[in-house]
Design brief:
The complex is a heterotrimer. Chain A is an alpha+beta fold. Helix content of chain A is 36%, strand content 14%. The longest helix of chain B is centred in the N-terminal third of the chain and has 37 residues. In chain C, helix 1 runs parallel beside helix 5, helix 2 runs antiparallel to helix 3 and helix 3 packs antiparallel against helix 4. Classes of the chains: A alpha+beta, B mainly alpha, C mainly alpha. Chains in contact: A-B, B-C. The interface between A and B is large, with 116 and 126 residues.
């Protein structure tokens, strides 16, 4: 008896809940009202069946509940009734499916005149690219990715030179213009999801997926990642700012093209290119350039030296040996070092540049462009300023160079630090930066440490050496120049210092 | 039947010692209990994990040790344990093992040794899985779908040991499930007793039988994807791993296809839904029929619906991948096939509720669970139509709507059947009745609680709240009221979680202190209630096998004084069998081994 | 049962077929074995089908370097022909044992069964040797997806043979305790399993040694 009442109440309450629920879809901001319509149709059809079945069940239980002396009616089956029910169900199904497929057909056919926007996901941030004046996006491939070219645009493709890069989680779009979102990923699966647009699609490394939508409302709409992409998934967020056509064009004008970003970055000679490659590929995480012993041999004075290989033989470090060691590291490993280096696929030119850079690292010749010579953030030698450019967002280069805090913020955004470290004191994957500087933290081994410049630098270059208690040791090592480190620390300090 | 003679003379070594009787037992009933208890223990671990997750969602930051890494690890382990190690193992290894030989009138499974091996292999897989909590880096946090590249690349918890143990455990589990599965299907086809034609079998056997065939054919897809991912992880191959940047480094992989993994995974994953659902359909059909004192309405349609669902379940897998970046034109086909599968499924629901109509509905605890199952299954099934229709899925996929949907249809609904079935068959398994009062309390909290958890959760999905988020702070479109709702859901979830202690208590308490049960307390017709001993002894049937003369649903037959006629009761002169199908004309009954030899 | 009406002695109902009194216990258990084996082979089929489909899909990506190009190791796979011949002979030996089984010739059954197993051991050793050859030529498992699939498919097939050999060893060791009918049933199962794995191997062999063009056309046939 109670169950019959409970079932009836559930049927009625569910319907009432639907109308009274404050949790409904976000206000639509795109052309996809048809999607909302198909959702409504589905709700109507399924709602009808839900109420009918639950109501019938409640009534049957109430009406035919056991009383002493009752006996069930004997009826093995009723073919006619069953076929009627199958027919009715099929009609309901068709009523949902047919409009759904019609709208889906629209969804997969992108209008001819759609404006293209490429979205590139990486753990755990977004970047964007608009086709430049020629209206064509240059080809791109993960293999081209380095710190100068985070989107992996083919540097030899003329179509790519004028592409406009947005190195920020926020992107602007013009109102009332169909946009084809071309989706790529640098690493794992992501999903570009703007709730107000209704549409979403996974981003898969190795291919370009797409969907289209026309923004129909001015305003700022949140972008979320909707495919689990690792521990920082929930922090992979951004914004679409829908502007008027004029505002959008103004904004777009201010964004750098691919050629501009490259020119800024590779103005140095072969040695400078090599330095940037080394930095961008993380070589310096293991190979020091100041003679100190790391996980791998130092590069200082390496060129021309005689090394002993694992099997006991001797080798003179020349260009050929260096190149072999980069493309096939396991072949001849210097005694005393673990065979941990992965093979790198550099082009011959890149190998030349790396070798030239290694060759330039001589303790007897103070190099003009040695990144570690850049010193404190106030001491801005030209290469250091350049190296900060390599990881710059849309912030203008000049203002960044003048303001270490802004520069630090730009680095933090571009490197994805903020996916894990919050700026407002909230708990993320890593400790918040707010009020971090000067604080005393307990490490995972129980010891205490005061967060000062030295600790922060170490934590960036060797993150897992001293992990704060309660946080996972998952941060990758970042090979930043001293100037960049100083800028980051300046930025951290600007977020408030703990008073001792 | 000759098999039986064979069994009597050779295979059925009466267990002599405690060890061979209860530990290294080859008796299907003991193995079933071993399977069930192991699965329930694993399920309780997963339940605790879900409570910890809910604490983080409802009251962010309230538990210091649930950081993002732990959250994703708990989420992954919760999902995997519940789907594979609890539900699959419990329905096939537990109920399948216990009920198939009893319901078809066999003395045991046809390969008792392989059956025992299956359990121990399953236990090994559970141990390997749970071991990942204790290895460096902890268990994998890749989500139960284990999508590469993220599952094996840096930035995901447990990419060193956790994922390897997970994959190895799955491979071991598949071996166990295959050994068990071969037993179940062969037993159904070859060891039915005299007169037990296929169309006289209870729907429980039909459900488990079809689910087992699905498992046998679908688990290889998981095996293939698991072993290929293991190669990618351990040997550095590029089956699924594309060229990518991980933590600033180009990885050595190139060219692999993450979408290929998803196709393989869901080619297993969708049938897996029915591997869980079909046994539940079968069990619930029998519970409803017994407690409504009425035959299951439209038995033959029910059998065909099970078969249709089983076949169709192999052509709908990509409805899990509408927004995966696969060729978008696949969406047309898979939306259509998915919605078609709703027709036989709906028919099953109709026949359950029509069974109640003009019945004599006894509102016993098993029946309450069965009725609650119908409601939750209807809710979960109907929301499935949202997600199966490709265009409606696009705004809803990867939101809480999906979480609510699959928990309703694949979590709550089958678990309600599990409870109902345990309350129903417990008297036969232990010889004692479960305590009714505790049972009713357990039912009401579980039923109302889970509905209050999952029904409102759909609306978080309509709102657009993405799933698998550790923290929702700072998302502007999510109003405070949604966070309040999450807190409410968490409170309900903890309540329901705690209520399961009632069930655990009842199981153990009643096993010792429960009211002794009669052999056939529910006055049911099917063979398992007609064993000479309760609980059934080794060999199940004493000296001679039962002989079957009618289907399993002769309730309230006109002309019979009592309202049930056991399957072993011969037809009276002039009485016709009401399935209306003679075994000779049945296309389903082509094997002649359904014939038993009668008394020796 | 207390409430049930007294049960009359079981009598045949018109829906039952008469019991096959002539069927012996051994025949019954052989038919159980056959059913079990058929389902096992269905599982094996599903496994290899899925692997083959995965391989066809994967082969259409740019980085696939077929092992059958003229300069690649499988252009002239004479070693695989040798192994195929061994497996074929094993299958023939088992068929021969099966014919002995039909003649109820226990000694011949055992000898031929043993011969089939030994030949299969030769096949497994031969496959390992091919692995060694390939590996020696620098074709590691991770070098190229074509290599990876080669090792994976041959490896899994080899494991199935090894699994069969375990059953084979068990039968041989137990042979003298079994009566002719029991042994014949086991020989029958072994033969079926071996023929099937021979078939699987021939399909794999054909696939692994076919040209990229063949892959292309298969793949387009499947719609990739």
């Amino acid at each position: 008896m109670a169950i019959a009442i409970a079932l009836a109440i559930i049927a009625v309450a569910s319907v009432l809940f639907h109308f009274w629920s404050p949790w409904q879809a976000t206000p639509l901001a795109s052309n996809w009202s048809a999607i909302d319509l198909t959702l409504t149709i589905t709700l109507l059809v399924t709602g009808f069946f839900f109420v009918a079945i639950t109501g019938f069940m409640a009534y049957a239980v109430y009406r035919f509940r056991h009383h002493a002396g009752n006996r069930a009616h004997y009826e093995p089956e009723n073919k006619k009734l069953e076929w009627w029910l199958i027919g009715l169900t099929s009609i309901g199904i068709a009523a949902m499916l047919a409009p759904g497929l019609v709208v889906y057909d629209k969804f997969v056919h992108v209008p001819e005149d759609a404006y293209e926007l490429e979205v590139v996901g990486q753990q755990w941030l977004w970047r964007y690219r608009f086709p430049g004046a020629d209206g064509v996006l240059g080809t791109a491939d993960v293999r081209h990715i380095n710190s100068d070219n985070p989107l992996g645009i083919n540097p030899d493709d003329p179509n790519g030179q004028d592409d406009i890069l947005i190195e920020s989680n926020d992107v602007h779009l013009p109102i009332d213009r169909a946009v084809k979102f071309l989706l790529r990923s640098r690493d794992v699966l992501h999903d570009f999801y703007v709730p107000h647009f209704r549409a979403k699609m996974d981003m898969v490394p190795g291919l370009v997926s797409y969907f289209w939508a026309t923004p129909t409302r001015l305003g700022t709409f949140e972008i979320l990642c909707a495919e689990l992409c690792g521990v920082g998934h929930y922090n992979m967020r951004g914004n679409v700012i829908v502007d008027t056509e004029a505002d959008f064009n103004d904004w777009l004008q201010q964004q750098p093209t691919f050629a501009q970003t490259l020119a800024r970055k590779s103005s140095g000679g072969l040695v400078e290119q090599g330095r940037q490659l080394a930095q961008g590929n993380g070589c310096l995480a293991c190979h020091s350039v100041d003679g100190s012993r790391g996980l791998a041999p130092t590069w200082l004075d390496l060129f021309g030296k005689t090394e002993t290989i694992k099997d006991g033989s001797q080798v003179i470090v020349d260009a050929a040996y260096l190149k072999e060691s980069i493309v096939a590291p396991a072949a001849s490993i210097v005694q005393g070092y673990p065979p941990v280096m992965v093979a790198y696929n550099f082009s011959p030119e890149q190998l030349d540049a790396l070798v030239a850079y290694i060759q330039s690292l001589r303790s007897d010749v103070p190099p003009a462009s040695h990144p570690d010579q850049a010193g404190a953030s106030s001491d801005r030698s030209p290469p250091a300023a350049e190296s900060t450019d390599t990881s710059k967002t849309s912030t203008a280069a000049a203002s960044a160079a003048a303001d270490p805090v802004a520069e630090g913020r730009a680095i933090a955004t571009a490197q994805g630090c903020l996916a894990c470290h919050s700026l407002d004191g909230s708990r993320g994957v890593g400790p918040s930066w707010k009020g971090l500087y000067g604080a005393t933290e307990t490490l995972s081994d129980g010891s205490q440490v005061t967060v000062d410049t030295a600790y922060l630098k170490e934590s960036i270059t060797h993150p897992n050496a001293k992990v704060v208690e309660g946080y996972a040791a998952i941060m990758p090592a970042y090979a930043l120049s001293d100037a960049q480190l100083e800028a980051l620390i300046a930025f951290t300090r600007s977020l408030g210092e703990a008073t001792q | 039947m000759a098999y039986a003679e064979d069994a009597e003379h050779q295979a059925l070594h009466e267990p002599r010692s405690y060890w061979t009787r209860y530990i290294w037992s080859q008796d299907h009933k003991v193995i079933a209990i071993q399977y069930s208890l192991t699965a329930i223990v694993a399920g309780l671990v997963a339940l605790v994990l879900s409570a910890l997750m809910r604490m983080q969602i409802g009251f962010p930051g309230s538990l210091e040790f649930v950081d993002a890494e732990a959250y994703y690890q708990f989420m992954t382990m919760h999902g995997m344990i519940m789907v594979i190690y609890l539900l699959t193992a419990l329905f096939l290894g537990g109920f399948g093992n216990y009920l198939i030989p009893l319901m078809v009138g066999a003395r045991d499974m046809v390969f008792p040794y392989v059956n025992m091996l299956s359990y121990w292999t399953y236990l090994l897989s559970v141990i390997i899985l749970l071991a990942s909590f204790f290895v460096p880096g902890g268990p994998t946090g890749a989500g139960w779908t284990l999508y590469p590249p993220q599952a094996i690349s840096q930035g995901t918890p447990g990419t060193d040991w956790g994922i390897v143990l997970m994959l190895v455990s799955l491979l071991v589990f598949i071996v166990a499930a295959t050994m068990g599965g071969l037993n179940y299907v062969t037993t159904v086809l070859q060891a039915r007793t005299h007169g037990m034609t296929l169309l006289r079998m209870p729907l429980t056997v039909w459900g488990i039988f079809s689910a087992t065939i699905l498992a046998l054919l679908a688990f290889p897809a998981l095996f293939v994807s698991g072993i290929m991912m293991l190669f990618d992880k351990v040997l550095g191959t590029s089956f699924f791993m594309p060229a990518m940047i991980s933590m600033g480094q180009q990885l050595d992989h190139e060219g692999g296809s993450p979408i290929l993994f998803q196709h393989l995974f869901w080619f297993f994953g969708h049938p897996e839904v029915y591997i869980v659902a079909l046994p539940a359909f079968g069990l619930v059909s029998d519970i409803i029929s017994v407690h409504a004192r009425k035959n299951i309405f439209g038995y033959r349609m029910m059998v065909w619906a099970i078969i249709a669902i089983a076949v169709l379940s192999f052509v709908v897998w990509a409805h899990h991948m509408y927004v995966s970046g696969m060729n978008p034109y696949f969406g047309f086909f898979f939306a259509t096939s998915t919605l078609i599968i709703a027709v036989p499924t709906a028919l099953k629901v109709y026949n359950w509720v029509l069974t109640l109509w003009r019945g004599d509905v006894h509102l016993t605890v098993p029946m309450l669970f069965a009725l609650a199952f119908i409601l939750t299954f209807v809710t979960g099934g109907l929301t499935g139509l949202f997600l199966g229709n490709v265009i409606v899925d696009i705004p809803l996929s990867d939101t809480y709507f999906v979480v609510a949907h699959f928990h309703m249809v694949m979590g709550v609904a089958p678990i309600l059947v599990v409870f109902g079935a345990i309350y129903h068959w417990y008297p036969k398994i232990t010889g004692r009745m479960l305590n009714d009062t505790i049972g009713k309390l357990h039912f009401w909290i579980t039923f109302i609680g889970t509905y209050l958890i999952y029904f409102p959760m759909h609306y978080l999905g309509f709102l657009g709240m993405p799933r698998r988020y550790y923290d929702y702070e700072g998302i502007a479109f999510i109003p405070q009221s949604a966070h309040d709702l999450n807190a409410f859901i968490t409170v309900m979830a903890l309540t329901v979680g705690l209520a399961q202690l009632l069930f655990v208590f009842n199981m153990f308490y009643s096993a010792f202190k429960g009211r002794p049960a009669e052999a056939n307390p529910w006055h049911a017709t099917s063979l398992e209630w007609l064993t000479p001993q309760t609980p059934p002894a080794h060999g199940n049937w004493g000296p001679s096998l039962p002989v079957v003369h009618r289907w399993a649903y002769d309730y309230s037959v006109p002309g019979w004084e009592q309202d049930y006629v056991p399957q072993t009761e011969p037809l009276r002169p002039g009485e016709t069998e009401h399935t209306g199908i003679a075994s000779d004309s049945s296309p389903l009954d082509s094997t002649d081994s359904s014939i038993a030899e009668g008394k020796p | 049962m207390s409430t049930a009406t007294p049960r009359p002695a079981p009598e045949l109902n018109p829906f039952d077929r008469p019991p096959l009194a002539s069927r012996s216990a051994a025949a019954e258990s052989a038919s159980i074995g056959k059913t079990g084996l058929r389902f096992l082979l269905a599982v094996v089929t599903s496994l290899f089908m899925l692997l083959i489909v995965a391989m066809l899909i994967r082969s259409q990506y740019a980085d696939w370097e077929s092992l059958t190009e003229p300069w690649q190791p499988l252009a002239h796979p004479w070693s695989l022909w040798v192994n195929s011949a061994l497996l074929l002979l094993a299958s023939v030996a088992l068929q021969w044992a099966r014919s002995a089984a039909r003649r109820q010739d226990q000694a011949a059954m055992v000898n031929r069964l043993a011969l089939g197993g030994v030949l299969s051991c030769g096949f497994v050793a031969g496959q390992l040797w091919v692995w060694q050859l390939l590996h020696g030529q620098g074709f590691g498992v991770a070098g190229n997806p074509a290599n990876s699939f080669f090792y994976l498919l041959t490896g899994l097939h080899g494991l199935h043979i090894v699994g069969g050999l375990l059953a084979w060893a068990k039968v041989l060791l137990a042979a003298r305790y079994l009566n002719t009918a029991q042994l014949a049933a086991r020989v029958e199962l072994c033969a079926t399993y071996w023929h099937y794995l021979l078939g699987v191997w021939l399909v794999l062999f054909a696939l692994l040694t076919s040209s990229p063009q063949t892959f292309r056309s298969f793949a387009s046939l499947c719609g990739f």
